[in-house]
Predict the structure.
Amino acid sequence: QVQLVESGGGLVQAGGALRLSCVASGRTFSSDGMGWFRQAPGKEREFVAAINWSGGTTSYADSVKGRFTISRNNAKNTVYLQMNNLKPEDTAVYYCNRHPVPYDYWGQGTQVTVSS
């Protein structure tokens, strides 16, 4: 069974930066596209960014384009999300999962809080 462990969240002021990490185990990570998703209080989980198996293709939600960068290191079974110029509306729990078809399992996520 796949396991996903997200980390790197925290409290940051608007305009600040954070780097999230997600370590995957339990299956062949390097063959899967991966994505970052987020869920704010009272809202549904939404797509943030995705990267294909090789790292050569990425995509982003319009709300984060130009501010966030997704990357991966297949040797470390890890996918990253560099978040710059953070805004209060980025406040949410951030999750990683396979993209475009998520695993049934979701990790605990990591909380990102951006103060104004």
Notes: The CA atoms of residues 25 and 41 lie 28 Å apart. The first strand starts at residue 3 and ends at 7. The beta strands are 3-7, 10-13, 18-25, 34-39, 46-51, 58-60, 68-73, 78-83, 92-98, 110-115.
